[in-house]
Amino acid sequence: MTPRPHPSRAYTLGIITGSGPEAGLDLWAKILRHTQALMGPGFRGDLDAPRLVAVSEPALGLSMDLKANEAAVWAAMERTVREIATQVDAFAIACNTLNWYAPRIDALLADMPGAGQLVSFQGVLHDEIRQSGAGRVGLLGAAPVVALDDHSAYAGLAAHVAIETPADPDRLQTLIHDVKRLGGAHASLGPRLEEIIIQMEADTILLACTELPLIARPVAGRRLIDVTDAVAARLAALALGHAGMKAA
Predict the structure, then answer these.
(1) How many CB atoms lie within 10 A of CB 209?
(2) pLDDT band at 1 (very low <50, low <70, confident <90, very high)
(3) 162: which DSSP letter?
(4) What are the tens digits of pLDDT across the range 27-70?
């Protein structure tokens, strides 16, 4: 059930970030772009930007090895969710790996009066794949995601579509670490991602790690789905709808 907006403030979005911090900035920038696109010529800039609360928790970076750090990451996540949930109406976690905790977070929110709703990456992605009609997708993400095991947020995706994962997941994991270390603007990173994509057979490629859209560029013959962008579009639409504004 979607919670009603808080009566004493404007409809508010939230972002939990920290794994990595740039991913939160990227999600916020995409929410702003989608808001402007939805409103069209009527967009007034500052006055029409959604109200937003962000919390960046460095300890969430332990999720790069989720199996080894499950308890520590959950402790940081629970603390962060409790901090942000009652300040917002809808929020997202700017990390594909961390969305593995979505069912546990939903249970936590159910016991928190006035808490906002979690817009999970996997929920949005399932809708995106249904709409695309793709029968086979390539999945690019951090090691806990592409393992498609009990610690992958996308383990259930295989029930809906055929999934191809990279032949050398360690190479992709190293690239993701390098994005965190060097920053998305580093010139060496984009070509390395393109090489990984070219080696895959699927025409539709899911960028299921928030670091990857920071370095992605078009690849001939491939459709790249930026999961972060799809989540940003959902959040912008929620904020716009509750503000009573009409899309252009």
Answers:
(1) 26
(2) very low
(3) E
(4) 999 999 999 999 999 999 999 999 999 999 999 999 999 999 99
The model's pLDDT over 130-163, given as tens digits with 9 standing for 90+, comes to 888 888 999 999 999 999 999 999 999 988 899 9
Element at 224 (helix H, strand E): strand 223-226
Q: Where are the alpha helices (DSSP H) in the chain?
A: 21-39, 66-84, 102-110, 121-132, 143-146, 169-182, 189-198, 227-242
Statement: residue 4 has pLDDT above 60: no
The torsion angles phi and psi of 164, rounded to 5 degrees, stand at -110, 130
CA distances from 150 to 107, 146, 219, 248 (A): 18, 11, 31, 42
The whole-number pLDDT of residue 18 equals: 96
Tell me how far apart the alpha carbons of residues 106 and 160 are, in angstroms, rounded to a whole number.
23
Residues belonging to the chain: 248
CB 228 within 8 A of CB 94: yes
Alpha-carbon 229 to chain mean position: 8
What strand order describes the sheet that includes 204-207? 162-164, 136-140, 204-207, 223-226
> Hey, what are 160's tokens?
């809906």
DSSP 99: G
